[in-house]
Amino acid sequence: MAILTWIVLGLAVGILAKWIMPGKDGGGIIMTTLLGIVGAVVGGFLATLMGFGAVTGFNINSLVVATLGALLVLFIYNKMK
């Protein structure tokens, strides 16, 4: 069930991050979902390292942490592309 939570949260966060940071990056919904999932993992990892908390499910803290992680991953993805 946790994998499904990551996928759903990653989809939502990926779309939110793409809306916040628009630009020409291809890939469509699949790439958006993958970047969102990776961003949620990266955001949770970095937030845990810094002592801010982690992505623990569907709550506002997890959504903010995952969104910031997705924005970071999307920024890096766009710079590498």
Determine Rg (CA atoms, Å): 12 Å
Mean pLDDT, all residues:
77
Determine the structural class based on helices, strands and strand pairing: mainly alpha
Sum up the overall morphology in one term: globular
Give, in order, the helices and strands: HHH
Biggest sheet statistics: none
Give the number of DSSP strands.
0
Total individual domains: 1
Strand content: under 5%
Portion in helices: over 70%
Low-confidence stretches: none
What's the quick description here?
By secondary structure, the protein is mainly α. Helices cover 78% and strands 0% of the residues.
Question: What does this 3D model show about the protein?
Answer:
- Helix content is 78%, strand content 0%.
- 31% of the residues are buried.
- It is globular, with a radius of gyration of 12 Å.
- The protein has one domain (2-80).
- The model has no long low-confidence stretch (mean pLDDT 77).
- Helix 1 crosses helix 2 (28-50), helix 1 packs across helix 3 and helix 2 (28-50) packs across helix 3 (60-80).
- It is mostly helical and 81 residues long.
- It has helices at residues 2-20, 28-50, 60-80.
- The chain has 3 helices and no strands.
